[in-house]
Amino acid sequence: DGTDAAVELYIVPSVDGTNYPDWTGNVTTDEQENAQYFVGAGTIRDEDGSATARAAVRGIEIPPGKYKVGVRNRANVAFAASGNTVKWRPWGYKSA
Description:
- It is built from one helix and three strands.
- The chain is globular and about 45 Å long.
- A three-stranded antiparallel β-sheet has the order 2-1-3, with no helix packed on it.
- It has one helix spanning 31-34, and strands spanning 5-13, 38-44, 67-74.
- The protein has one domain (5-74).
- By secondary structure, it is mainly beta.
């Protein structure tokens, strides 16, 4: 069941503004290859997959430049076929 399961979030920065490092794009392998890109996990609770699940991950340091966001489903229930989103909202800006 999906009790106390999580959705993991990964940020993969571009190495030169165009290309990205080798990583498991579907984030299905064990963390060894993806651990350096892991930024947090949001715990969700949806035992049968029938409800809209929401999770929040706070305090993520966003890298400068381009990056991709990856999500790993550890919820033990399948994501919907479409309509899944990741949203981010800065809570402060700092000059470098």
